[in-house]
Amino acid sequence: TGPAPGRVIALIQMLEGVTRVILEILRSEPPVGRVFGYEWSLSMFLGVIISLAGVVMWLLCRRAVQTEPEPPTSRRAFEGGFAATASSQ
Question: Under a CB-based contact definition with an 8 Å cutoff, are residues 51 and 13 in contact?
Fold first, then answer.
């Protein structure tokens, strides 16, 4: 079984946001605001927003518990179900 639907995209969002912030630290871009005494560019703010959206999406896309189907209670119920399916094709 693979990851729950949406989890891969959520992980990509989280990594993209963190990568964006790191790249903008290395790159020289005009600051638009201050956070904890450091000047942040618009791309850094967007990177944080994208990462936070990825975290929210990750939490919302929790893996659903998959239950095994119950086995048929009698042979007659199984054969009747199979015969009905086979004859309708």
Answer: yes
pLDDT along the chain (89 residues), means of 10: 81 94 87 87 93 92 55 60 55
SS3 (DSSP) at 68: coil
Cβ of 11: how many Cβ atoms within 10 Å? 14
Q: How far is CA 58 from CA 10, 17, 24, 55, 89, in A?
A: 5, 14, 25, 5, 41
pTM, two decimal places? 0.63
Query: How far apart are alpha carbons 25 and 28 in whole angstroms?
Result: 7
If one counts every other C-beta atom within 10 angstroms of the C-beta of residue 35, the result is 11
pLDDT at 66: 43
Q: Angle 7-9-14 (CA atoms, 0-180°, nearest 5)?
A: 95
